[in-house]
Amino acid sequence: MSTAVLMDGVALERALTRMAHEIVEHNPEPDSLVFIGIHTHGTPLAQRLAAKVGAILKREFPVGELDISMHRDDLALRNAPPQVGPSNITFDVTNRTVVLVDDVLFTGRTIRAAMDEISDFGRPQRIQLASLIDRGHRELPIRPDYVGKNVPTAAGERVRVRLVEIDGKDEVVIER
């Protein structure tokens, strides 16, 4: 198996900064903005994006964490039951603009599950999707609003996002 670095820490931060500016540009009335990261790597990315948007607009934004384990459509196909963690959303999402954040967008099934889970917390006015990496191969009609990097991949390749908060360093690699 070979590994190639797609983004180092500097490139990853640059992509998040650009995404933050795009979020500000597309949300001229940011009072309703909230950020929700999909557990595991989406959560620190959501925290970073919320901080960057907050620095631009000189305010803080709520950040939540979503565990989608019980909303997955492949539960019956798994050999073992999923490790379910708590979703941590301490704010009302009703009538808010939710920026849903994940590390890698692939088939779209994780995002579908996340939207189901978000509906358990209320009815947002709008959900926008921010994904650090979009690798294509969609199985569902889901497209991100904000993308750090588009990475065309083969179905057998794996894209891994490593973040300092979880893995000790920032980088994105592709494993072939």
Record field, number of beta strands: 8
Summarize the helix and strand pattern as letters. EHEHEEHEEEHE
Number of helices: 4
Average predicted confidence as pLDDT: 93
Rg computed from alpha carbons, rounded to a whole number of angstroms: 16 Å
Q: Going across the biggest sheet, name each strand in turn.
A: 3-2-4-5-6
CATH topology: Rossmann fold
- Helix-and-strand structural type: alpha/beta
- Outline, from the CA principal axes? globular
Determine the fraction of residues in helical runs and give it as a percent range: 25-40%
How would a crystallographer describe the biggest sheet? 5 strands, parallel
| Amount of beta strand | 25-35%
Uncertain parts: none
CATH class, named Alpha Beta
How many domains? The number is: 1
CATH architecture: 3-Layer(aba) Sandwich
Ends distance: 6 Å
